[in-house]
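dumping these here so i dont lose them again. two proteins, back to back, each one seq then C-alpha coordinates. dont judge the mess
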Amino acid sequence: MPFPKPEGMSDRGEILKRMADNVVIGDEDAVRKAAEDWAALVQAGKEKAFVGIVDGLAAGMKVVGDKYEAKEYFLPEVLLSADAMYAGLNVLIPLIPKKDVGASGTIVIGVVEGDIHDIGKNIVKAMLTAAGYNVIDKGRDVPTKDFVEEAKRSQAQVVALSTMMSPTLLSMKAVEESLEKEGMKDKTKTIIGGGTVTEEFQKRIKADSYGKDAVDAVDKVKQLIDQVMKAVEMMKKKEEGA
Protein backbone atom coordinates (compact mmCIF):
# COMPACT_ATOMS: atom_id res chain seq x y z
CA MET A 1 0.00 0.00 0.00
CA PRO A 2 1.28 3.51 -0.73
CA PHE A 3 2.06 5.62 2.33
CA PRO A 4 1.32 9.38 2.23
CA LYS A 5 4.32 11.67 2.33
CA PRO A 6 4.83 12.90 5.90
CA GLU A 7 3.56 16.44 6.31
CA GLY A 8 6.35 18.69 7.50
CA MET A 9 8.29 15.71 8.78
CA SER A 10 10.40 14.60 5.86
CA ASP A 11 13.70 14.97 7.72
CA ARG A 12 15.16 11.49 8.05
CA GLY A 13 16.80 12.18 11.39
CA GLU A 14 13.57 13.46 12.89
CA ILE A 15 11.62 10.37 11.78
CA LEU A 16 14.31 8.00 13.08
CA LYS A 17 14.31 9.83 16.41
CA ARG A 18 10.53 9.57 16.65
CA MET A 19 10.71 5.85 16.01
CA ALA A 20 13.44 5.30 18.59
CA ASP A 21 12.01 7.60 21.28
CA ASN A 22 8.52 6.14 21.02
CA VAL A 23 9.85 2.58 21.16
CA VAL A 24 11.56 3.58 24.41
CA ILE A 25 8.32 4.86 25.95
CA GLY A 26 6.26 2.02 24.43
CA ASP A 27 3.89 4.17 22.37
CA GLU A 28 2.70 1.69 19.75
CA ASP A 29 0.57 4.12 17.72
CA ALA A 30 3.33 6.74 17.55
CA VAL A 31 5.88 4.15 16.43
CA ARG A 32 3.53 2.89 13.73
CA LYS A 33 2.98 6.44 12.47
CA ALA A 34 6.72 7.16 12.41
CA ALA A 35 7.33 3.87 10.60
CA GLU A 36 4.69 4.82 8.02
CA ASP A 37 6.42 8.18 7.52
CA TRP A 38 9.68 6.30 6.94
CA ALA A 39 7.88 3.91 4.59
CA ALA A 40 6.79 6.87 2.49
CA LEU A 41 10.45 7.84 2.07
CA VAL A 42 11.29 4.23 1.15
CA GLN A 43 8.57 4.13 -1.49
CA ALA A 44 9.82 7.45 -2.87
CA GLY A 45 13.24 5.85 -3.32
CA LYS A 46 14.87 8.18 -0.78
CA GLU A 47 15.61 5.70 2.00
CA LYS A 48 15.88 1.98 2.71
CA ALA A 49 13.59 0.03 5.00
CA PHE A 50 16.38 -1.70 6.91
CA VAL A 51 17.88 1.69 7.87
CA GLY A 52 14.63 2.55 9.61
CA ILE A 53 14.66 -0.81 11.36
CA VAL A 54 18.25 -0.54 12.55
CA ASP A 55 18.64 3.19 13.22
CA GLY A 56 15.08 3.72 14.44
CA LEU A 57 13.39 0.64 15.91
CA ALA A 58 16.46 -1.35 16.96
CA ALA A 59 18.17 1.79 18.30
CA GLY A 60 15.18 2.37 20.54
CA MET A 61 15.21 -1.22 21.78
CA LYS A 62 18.91 -0.91 22.59
CA VAL A 63 18.05 1.94 24.95
CA VAL A 64 15.32 -0.22 26.46
CA GLY A 65 17.80 -3.07 26.92
CA ASP A 66 20.26 -0.73 28.64
CA LYS A 67 17.53 0.55 30.96
CA TYR A 68 16.52 -3.03 31.77
CA GLU A 69 20.10 -3.99 32.61
CA ALA A 70 20.38 -0.87 34.81
CA LYS A 71 17.11 -1.85 36.55
CA GLU A 72 15.48 1.38 35.37
CA TYR A 73 12.99 -0.68 33.38
CA PHE A 74 11.27 -3.90 34.36
CA LEU A 75 9.52 -6.59 32.34
CA PRO A 76 6.18 -4.71 31.84
CA GLU A 77 8.02 -1.71 30.33
CA VAL A 78 10.16 -3.98 28.13
CA LEU A 79 7.06 -5.76 26.82
CA LEU A 80 5.35 -2.46 25.99
CA SER A 81 8.43 -1.33 24.09
CA ALA A 82 8.65 -4.66 22.29
CA ASP A 83 5.03 -4.36 21.16
CA ALA A 84 5.76 -0.85 19.89
CA MET A 85 8.82 -2.09 18.00
CA TYR A 86 6.82 -4.93 16.40
CA ALA A 87 4.21 -2.39 15.24
CA GLY A 88 6.98 -0.63 13.35
CA LEU A 89 8.46 -3.87 12.06
CA ASN A 90 5.08 -4.85 10.62
CA VAL A 91 5.19 -1.68 8.49
CA LEU A 92 8.82 -1.83 7.38
CA ILE A 93 9.63 -5.54 7.00
CA PRO A 94 7.43 -5.96 3.87
CA LEU A 95 9.40 -3.15 2.22
CA ILE A 96 12.74 -4.96 2.44
CA PRO A 97 13.52 -6.20 -1.09
CA LYS A 98 14.09 -9.88 -1.70
CA LYS A 99 17.49 -10.95 -2.95
CA ASP A 100 17.86 -10.38 -6.68
CA VAL A 101 18.19 -14.09 -7.42
CA GLY A 102 15.97 -15.23 -4.60
CA ALA A 103 17.39 -16.36 -1.28
CA SER A 104 17.66 -20.03 -0.57
CA GLY A 105 18.71 -21.86 2.53
CA THR A 106 17.46 -22.89 5.95
CA ILE A 107 18.40 -21.26 9.24
CA VAL A 108 17.62 -22.59 12.71
CA ILE A 109 17.48 -19.64 15.12
CA GLY A 110 16.91 -19.32 18.84
CA VAL A 111 17.98 -17.97 22.21
CA VAL A 112 20.26 -20.41 24.03
CA GLU A 113 19.38 -22.32 27.17
CA GLY A 114 19.11 -20.18 30.28
CA ASP A 115 18.13 -16.92 28.53
CA ILE A 116 14.65 -15.61 27.74
CA HIS A 117 15.63 -12.30 26.06
CA ASP A 118 14.41 -12.74 22.49
CA ILE A 119 13.89 -9.24 21.10
CA GLY A 120 17.16 -9.15 19.15
CA LYS A 121 16.57 -12.67 17.90
CA ASN A 122 13.12 -11.68 16.67
CA ILE A 123 14.51 -8.73 14.70
CA VAL A 124 17.08 -10.95 12.99
CA LYS A 125 14.42 -13.58 12.30
CA ALA A 126 12.13 -10.99 10.74
CA MET A 127 14.86 -9.69 8.45
CA LEU A 128 15.98 -13.18 7.40
CA THR A 129 12.38 -14.11 6.63
CA ALA A 130 11.93 -10.92 4.62
CA ALA A 131 15.07 -11.81 2.66
CA GLY A 132 13.43 -15.06 1.58
CA TYR A 133 15.15 -17.63 3.78
CA ASN A 134 13.41 -20.56 5.46
CA VAL A 135 13.73 -19.67 9.15
CA ILE A 136 12.93 -22.19 11.86
CA ASP A 137 12.49 -20.34 15.14
CA LYS A 138 13.09 -22.51 18.22
CA GLY A 139 12.16 -19.64 20.55
CA ARG A 140 14.00 -18.86 23.76
CA ASP A 141 15.69 -20.86 26.52
CA VAL A 142 16.40 -23.58 23.95
CA PRO A 143 18.30 -26.70 25.11
CA THR A 144 21.45 -27.57 23.18
CA LYS A 145 20.05 -30.87 21.93
CA ASP A 146 17.05 -29.09 20.38
CA PHE A 147 19.29 -26.93 18.20
CA VAL A 148 21.29 -29.95 17.07
CA GLU A 149 18.29 -32.19 16.45
CA GLU A 150 16.47 -29.47 14.47
CA ALA A 151 19.54 -28.69 12.37
CA LYS A 152 19.88 -32.38 11.58
CA ARG A 153 16.18 -32.83 10.82
CA SER A 154 15.85 -29.77 8.60
CA GLN A 155 19.33 -30.07 7.06
CA ALA A 156 19.88 -26.42 7.97
CA GLN A 157 22.88 -24.65 6.54
CA VAL A 158 23.09 -22.26 9.51
CA VAL A 159 22.34 -22.35 13.23
CA ALA A 160 21.95 -18.82 14.64
CA LEU A 161 22.37 -18.47 18.40
CA SER A 162 21.52 -15.45 20.55
CA THR A 163 22.00 -14.45 24.18
CA MET A 164 21.96 -11.23 26.17
CA MET A 165 23.46 -12.72 29.35
CA SER A 166 27.05 -13.54 30.26
CA PRO A 167 26.27 -16.77 32.21
CA THR A 168 24.60 -18.30 29.14
CA LEU A 169 27.56 -17.77 26.82
CA LEU A 170 28.65 -21.29 27.70
CA SER A 171 25.41 -22.58 26.17
CA MET A 172 26.68 -21.30 22.83
CA LYS A 173 29.89 -23.22 23.32
CA ALA A 174 27.86 -26.35 24.14
CA VAL A 175 25.95 -26.10 20.84
CA GLU A 176 29.18 -25.61 18.93
CA GLU A 177 30.76 -28.66 20.56
CA SER A 178 27.66 -30.79 19.98
CA LEU A 179 27.54 -29.97 16.28
CA GLU A 180 31.23 -30.82 16.01
CA LYS A 181 30.73 -34.11 17.88
CA GLU A 182 27.88 -35.04 15.53
CA GLY A 183 30.13 -34.39 12.51
CA MET A 184 27.80 -31.67 11.20
CA LYS A 185 30.18 -28.74 10.87
CA ASP A 186 30.94 -29.31 7.18
CA LYS A 187 27.34 -28.69 6.18
CA THR A 188 26.04 -26.63 9.11
CA LYS A 189 27.67 -23.33 10.07
CA THR A 190 27.05 -21.25 13.18
CA ILE A 191 26.59 -17.56 13.83
CA ILE A 192 26.32 -16.03 17.30
CA GLY A 193 25.16 -12.63 18.51
CA GLY A 194 23.61 -10.68 21.36
CA GLY A 195 24.41 -8.03 23.93
CA THR A 196 27.22 -9.90 25.69
CA VAL A 197 28.66 -11.64 22.62
CA THR A 198 31.91 -10.46 21.04
CA GLU A 199 33.96 -11.40 18.02
CA GLU A 200 36.72 -12.51 20.37
CA PHE A 201 34.32 -14.96 22.06
CA GLN A 202 33.18 -16.23 18.66
CA LYS A 203 36.76 -17.08 17.76
CA ARG A 204 37.40 -18.65 21.16
CA ILE A 205 34.54 -21.15 20.84
CA LYS A 206 35.22 -21.60 17.10
CA ALA A 207 31.80 -20.48 15.94
CA ASP A 208 31.82 -19.67 12.23
CA SER A 209 30.63 -16.07 12.42
CA TYR A 210 29.53 -13.19 14.64
CA GLY A 211 26.72 -10.71 13.93
CA LYS A 212 27.24 -7.35 15.59
CA ASP A 213 23.69 -6.25 14.71
CA ALA A 214 20.67 -7.41 12.71
CA VAL A 215 21.87 -6.11 9.34
CA ASP A 216 25.36 -7.55 9.84
CA ALA A 217 23.84 -10.88 10.90
CA VAL A 218 21.81 -11.15 7.67
CA ASP A 219 24.89 -10.41 5.57
CA LYS A 220 26.97 -12.96 7.51
CA VAL A 221 24.27 -15.63 7.18
CA LYS A 222 24.27 -15.17 3.40
CA GLN A 223 28.05 -15.60 3.37
CA LEU A 224 27.83 -18.77 5.47
CA ILE A 225 25.13 -20.28 3.26
CA ASP A 226 27.20 -19.48 0.18
CA GLN A 227 30.16 -21.29 1.78
CA VAL A 228 28.08 -24.38 2.52
CA MET A 229 26.53 -24.45 -0.95
CA LYS A 230 29.94 -24.20 -2.61
CA ALA A 231 31.37 -26.93 -0.38
CA VAL A 232 28.43 -29.23 -1.17
CA GLU A 233 28.83 -28.56 -4.88
CA MET A 234 32.54 -29.43 -4.72
CA MET A 235 31.76 -32.67 -2.88
CA LYS A 236 29.23 -33.62 -5.56
CA LYS A 237 31.76 -32.99 -8.32
CA LYS A 238 34.35 -35.12 -6.53
CA GLU A 239 31.84 -37.96 -6.11
CA GLU A 240 30.86 -37.75 -9.78
CA GLY A 241 34.48 -37.82 -10.85
CA ALA A 242 35.36 -40.76 -8.61
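---- next one ----
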Amino acid sequence: MLLLFIVGSVDPKLLGIAKRVKEYRPSDYDILYTYLSLFSEIILLPNMVTEVSNLLDHYVGDRRENCMALLAALASSRSEKYIPSDIAVQQPEYMALGITDTAILCALEKDTYLLTSDFDLYLAALCRSQGAQRFDDLRD
Protein backbone atom coordinates (compact mmCIF):
# COMPACT_ATOMS: atom_id res chain seq x y z
CA MET A 1 0.00 0.00 0.00
CA LEU A 2 2.91 2.30 0.72
CA LEU A 3 4.30 1.69 -2.77
CA LEU A 4 0.90 2.43 -4.32
CA PHE A 5 0.71 5.65 -2.31
CA ILE A 6 4.21 6.77 -3.31
CA VAL A 7 3.94 5.95 -7.02
CA GLY A 8 0.37 7.23 -7.25
CA SER A 9 1.35 10.50 -5.61
CA VAL A 10 4.30 11.05 -7.92
CA ASP A 11 2.89 9.82 -11.24
CA PRO A 12 -0.54 8.13 -11.32
CA LYS A 13 0.01 7.31 -15.02
CA LEU A 14 2.49 4.64 -13.90
CA LEU A 15 -0.27 2.71 -12.16
CA GLY A 16 -1.33 -0.23 -14.27
CA ILE A 17 1.91 -0.05 -16.26
CA ALA A 18 5.03 0.02 -14.11
CA LYS A 19 6.52 -2.99 -12.39
CA ARG A 20 5.08 -3.73 -8.92
CA VAL A 21 2.04 -1.47 -9.49
CA LYS A 22 0.60 -3.12 -12.62
CA GLU A 23 -2.42 -4.39 -10.71
CA TYR A 24 -3.44 -0.89 -9.62
CA ARG A 25 -5.20 1.92 -11.46
CA PRO A 26 -5.33 5.66 -10.74
CA SER A 27 -8.78 5.07 -9.23
CA ASP A 28 -7.14 2.72 -6.68
CA TYR A 29 -4.83 5.51 -5.64
CA ASP A 30 -7.88 7.73 -5.13
CA ILE A 31 -9.52 5.06 -2.97
CA LEU A 32 -6.33 4.67 -0.93
CA TYR A 33 -5.89 8.41 -0.49
CA THR A 34 -9.50 8.85 0.66
CA TYR A 35 -9.28 5.89 3.03
CA LEU A 36 -6.04 7.09 4.62
CA SER A 37 -7.56 10.52 5.21
CA LEU A 38 -9.96 8.88 7.69
CA PHE A 39 -7.08 8.23 10.10
CA SER A 40 -5.25 10.71 12.28
CA GLU A 41 -1.94 8.87 12.08
CA ILE A 42 -0.13 6.51 9.74
CA ILE A 43 2.49 4.29 11.33
CA LEU A 44 5.44 3.02 9.34
CA LEU A 45 7.96 0.34 10.20
CA PRO A 46 11.61 0.51 9.12
CA ASN A 47 11.03 -2.83 7.36
CA MET A 48 8.25 -1.30 5.25
CA VAL A 49 10.29 1.75 4.31
CA THR A 50 13.24 -0.46 3.37
CA GLU A 51 11.13 -2.74 1.18
CA VAL A 52 9.53 0.18 -0.66
CA SER A 53 12.90 1.84 -1.12
CA ASN A 54 14.21 -1.37 -2.68
CA LEU A 55 11.16 -1.68 -4.95
CA LEU A 56 11.69 1.89 -6.16
CA ASP A 57 15.03 0.79 -7.62
CA HIS A 58 13.03 -0.33 -10.66
CA TYR A 59 12.28 3.28 -11.51
CA VAL A 60 14.82 5.58 -13.15
CA GLY A 61 15.54 9.26 -13.51
CA ASP A 62 13.24 11.93 -12.16
CA ARG A 63 10.48 9.44 -11.35
CA ARG A 64 12.76 7.47 -9.05
CA GLU A 65 14.17 10.63 -7.51
CA ASN A 66 10.70 12.05 -6.87
CA CYS A 67 9.47 8.77 -5.43
CA MET A 68 12.50 8.50 -3.16
CA ALA A 69 12.05 12.11 -2.04
CA LEU A 70 8.42 11.46 -1.13
CA LEU A 71 9.37 8.28 0.73
CA ALA A 72 11.98 10.28 2.67
CA ALA A 73 9.41 12.97 3.51
CA LEU A 74 6.92 10.38 4.73
CA ALA A 75 9.54 8.55 6.77
CA SER A 76 10.53 11.86 8.36
CA SER A 77 7.02 13.03 9.13
CA ARG A 78 5.23 9.86 10.26
CA SER A 79 5.43 7.82 13.41
CA GLU A 80 7.79 4.91 13.01
CA LYS A 81 7.54 1.81 15.12
CA TYR A 82 10.51 -0.49 15.45
CA ILE A 83 10.02 -4.20 16.01
CA PRO A 84 13.31 -6.00 16.68
CA SER A 85 13.94 -8.85 14.26
CA ASP A 86 14.54 -11.29 17.10
CA ILE A 87 10.96 -10.63 18.29
CA ALA A 88 9.48 -11.03 14.81
CA VAL A 89 11.24 -14.31 14.05
CA GLN A 90 9.90 -15.84 17.27
CA GLN A 91 6.30 -15.38 16.12
CA PRO A 92 4.42 -18.42 14.81
CA GLU A 93 3.55 -16.54 11.59
CA TYR A 94 7.18 -15.81 10.69
CA MET A 95 7.84 -18.88 8.52
CA ALA A 96 4.74 -18.27 6.41
CA LEU A 97 4.81 -14.47 6.24
CA GLY A 98 8.46 -13.45 6.44
CA ILE A 99 10.10 -10.74 8.50
CA THR A 100 8.33 -7.60 7.30
CA ASP A 101 4.79 -8.91 7.52
CA THR A 102 5.45 -10.54 10.88
CA ALA A 103 6.90 -7.28 12.19
CA ILE A 104 3.73 -5.54 10.98
CA LEU A 105 1.67 -8.06 12.97
CA CYS A 106 3.78 -7.39 16.05
CA ALA A 107 3.24 -3.65 15.67
CA LEU A 108 -0.54 -3.93 15.71
CA GLU A 109 -2.16 -2.79 18.92
CA LYS A 110 -5.72 -2.35 20.08
CA ASP A 111 -5.93 1.17 18.64
CA THR A 112 -4.19 0.44 15.31
CA TYR A 113 -5.73 -0.76 12.09
CA LEU A 114 -4.03 -2.61 9.26
CA LEU A 115 -4.68 -1.88 5.60
CA THR A 116 -3.12 -4.45 3.30
CA SER A 117 -3.39 -6.01 -0.12
CA ASP A 118 -1.76 -9.18 1.21
CA PHE A 119 -4.46 -11.76 1.91
CA ASP A 120 -2.26 -13.91 4.17
CA LEU A 121 -1.26 -10.91 6.28
CA TYR A 122 -4.91 -9.86 6.49
CA LEU A 123 -5.95 -13.32 7.73
CA ALA A 124 -3.09 -13.43 10.24
CA ALA A 125 -4.19 -10.08 11.67
CA LEU A 126 -7.76 -11.31 11.98
CA CYS A 127 -6.54 -14.48 13.70
CA ARG A 128 -4.83 -12.22 16.23
CA SER A 129 -8.14 -10.34 16.68
CA GLN A 130 -6.65 -7.18 15.23
CA GLY A 131 -8.47 -4.64 13.12
CA ALA A 132 -7.65 -5.19 9.48
CA GLN A 133 -8.96 -4.13 6.09
CA ARG A 134 -8.18 -5.78 2.78
CA PHE A 135 -7.62 -3.19 0.07
CA ASP A 136 -9.36 -5.34 -2.55
CA ASP A 137 -12.55 -5.11 -0.51
CA LEU A 138 -12.39 -1.30 -0.73
CA ARG A 139 -12.08 -1.53 -4.50
CA ASP A 140 -15.31 -3.51 -4.91
